[in-house]
Design brief:
Rossmann fold, nine-stranded mixed sheet, five-stranded mixed sheet, about 25% strand, alpha/beta, globular
Length: about 475
C-alpha cells in the first residue's frame, strides 16, 4: 500500500524570465552525491558527470565540460547514457519535513511534498500535483486517498496556495508549476514524464487554467467540478482547448437536471457551462478529453486511476500553443520568448487585467466576432518536425527558441527550418556536450535535455546559442 506519511515544505519563487533563470537560482541540493575517484586514477565518464551535478559554482562545472566531452570522445549518446544513469539523490525519510527557501522578484510561494512509504531514491517516482480548496484538508480528498492506495508509490505535491485561476492573472506566477517541479526534481528522484495534475473545487479552476496554459508539463489532468475563469468564456475556452491535443484530460462535472440558464446560478452555472463547452469542443476537434458526468449528489468513482495514472507524457513531432504571456508560450521543443509591443502579455498592452471589453453592436453574429477578436489578440505558434524539416508558424511572437533533444532529427544530415514560410536555416545542426549539460542542469532534466538550441527572430535570423 502506498501511504503518504511525510510532509516536506518547500518554497519557490515567482519568475518573469524562463525556467532556466529560476533554476539557476537554486543552490545544489544538500543530498547530492559526489563520485570522486581515488588519487592518480583517471575518472570515468560516469564519475565526471556525477561530479558535474555536484559542482558549485558554475565555473567549476564549466571546467568539467571539456573533460566530460573528452571522456566521451565527443559522443552525445554516451553522455546521455551517463546522464540518465546518474544518481544525484540520497535516501530520504518520508516522515521528515524540511523547508527550501528560494526567492525571485522578492516573492515566494510554498508547497508541501509528501513522500510515500515506498520512496526509493534509486528509482524515478511518478508525481501527482493536487490543488484543492484552501479550507479543506487535502488528506481528506477522495482522490488523494485513492492515490495513496495505488500499488505504485507516488510523490504528491500540495501547494499552500493554488496558482492563479484567472486567465486575467498577471504574468507573475504563470509558470509557477515549472518552478515547483525543478525544485522537486533537484531533491527527489521523480519521473518527469509522469506528472499528473488534479484539481477539485476552487483548485479545479486553477488546475483547468494550468492544463490549458502549460499542458506539456503533464502526462494528464483530472478536473473535478472546475469552471473556466476568463473573459468571454464561450468564445475564449474553445480557442484554448486545442492546447491539450497531446495531453489527456478527464473532466468530472455534475450535469444539472435543468437547462443551463434556468434557475441555475453562481458556481453551479459556471461549472455546467464549462462542462458543456468542453464537451462540444472536444467532440468537434477530436481532443483527448474524457467526461465523467455525474447526477446531482452523485460521488465520482476513481477506479479508473489504476490504468489512467500509468500514462506517460508524449514525445511529439508537432505542437501548437495559443497563449497570453511568454511564460505560457512553451510547448515541448518550442518556446516563444519575446512578444511585440502591444501584445496581450506585453506591459504596454491595452489588454490589462480584466479591462478587455469587446463591442459587438452592429455585428450579425456577435459570438463569431468576439471569437475573431480574441483569436487576433492572442499570440500563437505551431511547429512540426517531418523528416529533416522543421516548419514553424507564429503570430505575435518576436522570437522563438527551438530546444531540440536527441532523436528528433538526424543531426548527421542537413536540417531545413522554415518560419512563416521563410527558410531561416539550412545546414547541419551540431549537438554539443555543453548545451546538453547546461540544459540538464538548469532544469534538472535528465530524460530529454536539449542537445541543440536555436533562436529564431521575427526578422528571419536563426542563431544557435
Amino acid at each position: 500500500m502506498n501511504e503518504q506519511v511525510g510532509v516536506r515544505r518547500f518554497q519557490t519563487g515567482h519568475r518573469r524570465a524562463t525556467i532556466a533563470l529560476h533554476a539557476a537560482m537554486f543552490i545544489a541540493a544538500p543530498g547530492i552525491v559526489s563520485a570522486q575517484p581515488p588519487d592518480n586514477e583517471t575518472p570515468s565518464l560516469a564519475q565526471l558527470v556525477q561530479e558535474y551535478f555536484a559542482a558549485e559554482p558554475a565555473e567549476k562545472r564549466d571546467v568539467l565540460v571539456p573533460r566530460i566531452a573528452e571522456a566521451a570522445t565527443g559522443s552525445i549518446p554516451d553522455v546521455l547514457a551517463a546522464l540518465r544513469a546518474v544518481q544525484v539523490w540520497t535516501a530520504a525519510d518520508p516522515r521528515a519535513a524540511s523547508t527550501v527557501p528560494t526567492e525571485a522578484n522578492g516573492q515566494t510561494t510554498a508547497f508541501d511534498v509528501r513522500l510515500p512509504t515506498g520512496y526509493d531514491s534509486a528509482k524515478a517516482h511518478p508525481v501527482a500535483i493536487v490543488l484543492t480548496a484552501a479550507d479543506k484538508p487535502v488528506d481528506h480528498d477522495p482522490i488523494v486517498q485513492a492515490i495513496s492506495r495505488l500499488d505504485e508509490p507516488f510523490v504528491v505535491i500540495v501547494p499552500r496556495a493554488a496558482p492563479p485561476s484567472s486567465f486575467h492573472a498577471s504574468e507573475r506566477g504563470t509558470d509557477e508549476v515549472r518552478a515547483w517541479l525543478v525544485a522537486v526534481r533537484r531533491r527527489f528522484h521523480v519521473d518527469g514524464d509522469r506528472v499528473y495534475l488534479y484539481g477539485a473545487a476552487a483548485g479545479a479552476d486553477a488546475a483547468l487554467t494550468l492544463i490549458l496554459t502549460q499542458p506539456d508539463v503533464f502526462a494528464g489532468a483530472i478536473i473535478n467540478e472546475g469552471a473556466f475563469d476568463g473573459p468571454y468564456g464561450r468564445e475564449l475556452l474553445p480557442l484554448l482547448l486545442p492546447n491539450v491535443r497531446h495531453t489527456p484530460l478527464r473532466l468530472i462535472w455534475t450535469e444539472p437536471l435543468m437547462p443551463v440558464g434556468e434557475l441555475l446560478v453562481g458556481r453551479d452555472y459556471d461549472v455546467a457551462l464549462t462542462g458543456m463547452i468542453v464537451r462540444e469542443t472536444a467532440a468537434r476537434l477530436d481532443l483527448p478529453i474524457t467526461e465523467t458526468v455525474l447526477r446531482p449528489g452523485e460521488v465520482p468513482d476513481y477506479s479508473f486511476l489504476n490504468d489512467w495514472m500509468t500514462r506517460r507524457r508524449p514525445r511529439v513531432a508537432d505542437t501548437a500553443r495559443q497563449f497570453r504571456f511568454p511564460a505560457q508560450g512553451r510547448s515541448h521543443f518550442v518556446r516563444a520568448i519575446d512578444l511585440p509591443p502591444g501584445a496581450p502579455g506585453d506591459a504596454h498592452s491595452p489588454w490589462q487585467g480584466d479591462q478587455l471589453h469587446i463591442l459587438t453592436v452592429g455585428h450579425t453574429d456577435p459570438s463569431a466576432y468576439v471569437t475573431s477578436v480574441l483569436d487576433s489578440k492572442l499570440p500563437k505558434f505551431t511547429a512540426r518536425i517531418e523528416g529533416q524539416s522543421i516548419d514553424i508558424r507564429s503570430t505575435l511572437c518576436d522570437a522563438i527558441e527551438l530546444h531540440l533533444p536527441a532523436g528528433v532529427v538526424d543531426f548527421d544530415k542537413p536540417v531545413a527550418i522554415h518560419h512563416n514560410g521563410i527558410r531561416v536555416f539550412d545546414g547541419r545542426l551540431k549537438p554539443d556536450v555543453k548545451t546538453l549539460l547546461d540544459s540538464a542542469y538548469l532544469e534538472w532534466e535528465f530524460q530529454h535535455p536539449a542537445v541543440v538550441r536555436l533562436r529564431i527572430t521575427a526578422r528571419g535570423t536563426a542563431v544557435p546559442f
